[in-house]
TrEMBL record, chains A, B:
Molecular function GO terms recorded: potassium:chloride symporter activity
One GO CC annotation: plasma membrane
Species of the source: Psychrobacillus vulpis
Residue spans crossing the bilayer: 12-32, 44-63, 75-99, 129-150, 190-213, 225-246, 296-327, 348-368, 374-392, 404-424
Predominant location: membrane
Domain of life according to the entry: Bacteria
Annotated Pfam families: TrkH
Protein name, per record: Ktr system potassium transporter B
Membrane-topology annotation of the record: Multi-pass membrane protein
Compartments where located: Cell membrane
Keyword line: Cell membrane, Ion transport, Membrane, Potassium, Potassium transport, Transmembrane, Transmembrane helix, Transport
Length: 442, 442
């Protein structure tokens, strides 16, 4: 009986995802704790924190990776980032297929029509496709960036820096070998545009990229792809203008830059919170409204089944569309001549609610465990949940409990509320309905 | 054509509500600006702020009402509170009926079955009932409190203080004639229990009170009443224990009190954020986790069609129930053997989304207009939106723009996201549906 239960649990796809990440984190912790991985000894908690941060492609770190890690340590980091990033893309797509199949029978909460591959064989094929896609994009980007950096660093360093930052960018990890992350490149549009293009593409999600490649015309794209493309462009432009205006006179960030540098740095600062996490400015010096806005962007995050986290752009958009539809007395929201099911709306509500609850509860716990002000703590939790990696500079001031708490948030943010909850809950077999009763809300 | 449009708009119930409040605020502003209303001259913006705060039964104030207002000024305040409070109860019920009728035809988003009165005559009858209910409860409470206070203040002062605080409590206004609000009564359980009972009853909502009186047995109560009673008791007990533990060792709040005073003060501090706003402790000295928790309570608020604001307890509970139902693969949430419609769930999502948007946008605006730290500003916005009136002590440090912004939030919080949006949007006549398309969220 017990044995049967255990076996049943072991094959559940959400548990496979969570388990794989946990194994990778454990392996990473041990590897980073090896004497020849770091130049100075690091604690187990610190090793766990950085391994979690790399595997969940967050980018928060309690030490400077460039100086504390040896070449071996850096390669471990890169390995964790790449596995974590590809793993998510693959797993996310795979679980969508598997869960979609399972749930689709009951109430079609999940998509399944969007994919053709639904067997294990299909998933293997899909993984191959994703791998080819990832390696192609990364190779092109590494070549370009190496060429750009040869004059400054010479071939071998230029190549190694390019390799590290391209992998880190494409997987939305945000780790950098430079002690000040990318703050030295505010006047270098090439680095800016190559890296931001990488993390934007990585953050769109494999499904979207495939859709764009297969169907050339906008009109034939799926609603999901249309929403992701329009939403990404719209939100990025809006965010860039907002941050440009808010920080224009802040001499500690972009205030003293030339107009062009201001524009490029604002653009980068607008796109990095969803959820790349590289930084070109010091977030400890940012204006309060900009920090608030950045937390909002970090919470939204990128695309589903991508290297980005957060509640996801589509979740946010569906919530907004449903709200507008409600106030226009429409039963279901619609966009581009397509209606969105009530089930998708309720799914978005569930995701948003669990995500807000996670952020709230862990911030609450951190205000008890840490002696730090509220603002940098909330910022850190939003950053960890969105696996962003931006910080107001308190990461290395966290207590051991604080490091463990943030590690848990990074892990939860990476696997997402859906996976988390499908591990914890068992579906009800019978879907009976009681008589309705009115509840007055609002 | 234009005239026709205008006439049509003028009779819309949401506009009547909003308009009535605006008229009352305008009248209050003028009355408080009269030379004999205040002991020292106050600015127009200050008068507007306090008039708005009283009409919306918030309780935030830029000056101390007890010393700044003359007897005339205090009576103006009391009049605004009583009209604002009863007005909301009446209007809220009336609009539920009217809107319920209108929308019910389309998609039954609104309740209508819960009430029998649906004509104008029915609303007049309802208003009478509400008035009788209000005056009965207030009379009993004033008598009790006067008796309790006679030994301290003598009859006439005891009566006047009782009148003012009972009206302020029952309407969830939170205004007090004492300069330190109720901080002087931490060792007086009688004052504590009378006033908290008043604002808890006022915050349950007329619908719930009627249901409890008409049907004696729990089992025959409507789902709405059951949720409100169980939810209120559950949340209050949970909040009291949480705040008791968090503040136990905080010498600036309850740390130095006797155990019984600690318990009673924790209880009061737990129930006042939803949305009475009286305070027995100094919120500027509270621990960060307690402040965070208090903001959460202020956002939830009280019952629908009551003197309380916030998103409302039922909205919060429906959102949670829907989230759990989703993760258990249930189509619709259920409780006490009753199912809740998808429409109610989506309505809750819409209310929560608009409410979060209001809090976020106005906090954002205040971080730009004010030179104050983020935490007290966010706290002030949550307090204003929930028409609570608790403050970390920055109300009188707000700039003129800040005062106007907070006034707008109090007004929006009082009329609620529903009324606001039904003023701004026009229902779509034809409710066609497009073909469905899948959107991946989360
Ligand atoms: K990241
Ligand atoms: K209040």
């Amino acid at each position: 009986m017990l044995k049967h239960k255990k076996r049943k649990l072991l094959v559940s796809p959400p548990l496979i995802i969570a388990g794989s990440f946990l194994c990778l984190i454990a392996l990473g912790t041990i590897l980073l704790k090896l004497p020849f991985a770091t130049t100075t000894s690091v604690s187990w908690v610190d090793a766990l924190f950085v391994a979690t941060s790399a595997t969940t492609v967050t980018g928060l770190s309690v030490f400077d990776p460039g100086t504390t890690l040896t070449l071996f340590g850096e390669l471990v980091l890169l390995f964790l980032i790449q596995c974590g990033g590809i793993g998510t893309m693959t797993f996310a797509v795979a679980i969508l297929l598997l869960l979609g199949k399972k749930v689709g029978l009951q109430n079609r909460i999940y998509l399944q029509e969007s994919f053709n591959q639904q067997s294990i064989g299909g998933i293997v094929k899909l993984t191959k496709l994703i791998l080819i896609f990832v390696l192609t994009v990364e190779s092109v980007a590494i070549s370009l960036l190496t060429l750009h950096w040869i004059p400054t660093y010479g071939f071998s360093d230029a190549f190694y820096y390019s390799l590290f930052h391209v992998v880190s960018a494409f997987n939305n990890a945000g780790f950098s070998l430079f002690a000040d992350n990318l703050m030295g490149f505010t006047s270098d549009p090439i680095v800016n545009l190559i890296l931001s293009s990488l993390f934007i593409i990585g953050g769109l999600g494999f499904v979207v990229v495939v859709d764009i490649f297969q169907k050339k015309s906008f009109r034939t794209w799926s609603l999901h792809t249309k929403m992701m493309v329009i939403g990404t462009i719209g939100l990025n432009v809006f965010a860039a203008i907002t941050l440009f205006l808010l920080e224009f006179n802040n001499d500690s960030t972009i205030g003293k830059m030339s107009l062009w540098d201001k524009i490029f740095t604002s653009y980068f600062t607008a796109v990095t919170p969803r959820t790349a996490g590289f930084n070109m400015i010091d977030y400890g010096q940012m204006e309060d409204p900009s920090l608030l806005f950045t937390m909002f962007l970090m919470f939204i995050g990128g695309g589903s089944a991508s290297t980005a986290s957060g509640i996801k752009l589509t979740t946010f958009m569906v919530t907004l569309l449903a709200t507008f539809a409600f106030f226009r007395f429409q039963e279901e929201p619609s966009l581009f001549g397509r209606s969105i099911r009530k089930e998708t709306v309720i799914r978005s509500l569930a995701i948003s609610t669990v995500s807000l609850a996670i952020v709230f509860l862990f911030t609450f716990a951190l205000t008890i465990s840490e002696k730090l002000p509220l603002l940098p703590l909330v910022f850190e939790v939003f950053s960890a949940f969105g696996t962003v990696g931006l910080t107001m500079g308190i990461t290395n001031q966290l207590s051991n409990i604080g490091e463990v708490l943030i590690s848990i948030v990074m892990f939860l943010g990476r696997i997402g509320p859906l996976t988390l909850f499908f591990i914890l809950t068992k579906p009800k077999k019978v879907n009976y309905r009681y008589p309705y009763d009115q509840v007055i809300t609002g």
